[in-house]
Amino acid sequence: MIFDSDGTTTIVHQEKATLKIFLENLNDAYHKIKHDHLIINLFSFSKLSKNDILEFLELSNTHKKANKSLVLVTEIVSYDDVPDEISLAPSIQEAKDIIEMEEIERDLGL
Which residues contact 101 (CB under 8 A, 6 or more apart)? Predict the structure, then answer.
């Protein structure tokens, strides 16, 4: 698992692991990155389903309760196929844009 920190945002990458192992590693390392906004880069997974994305729901809800953003990045699953509690973007730049918009919303109390 690779962590790239940029200010208050951490991008999480994973190479050559199954989704199950990735989630286990992410949960194990969460205490190190829980104070940052998170971008979870899923480009290394060539096959993902809506159910795979739903595996991140609990982590997403926990992170958002702490007033932090968590965005999953993949082009394989459409954001229309996942619940609103999960933020999904097709690129890293769009994930950064989502985090910026969510920060503005939190600052405005929306």
Answer: none
Is the distance from CB of 43 to CB of 59 less than 8 angstroms? no
Architecture of the 2-108 domain:
2-Layer Sandwich (3.30)
Contacts made by residues 31-37, CB under 8 angstroms, sequence distance 24+: 32/3, 33/3, 34/63, 34/66, 34/68, 35/68, 36/5, 36/8, 36/9, 36/10, 36/68, 37/8, 37/9, 37/10, 37/68, 37/69, 37/70, 37/71, 37/99, 37/103
Look at residue 36 in the predicted model and tell me its pLDDT: 95
* Domain spans, the chain: 2-108
Quick: pLDDT tens for 66-95.
999 999 999 999 888 899 899 999 999 999
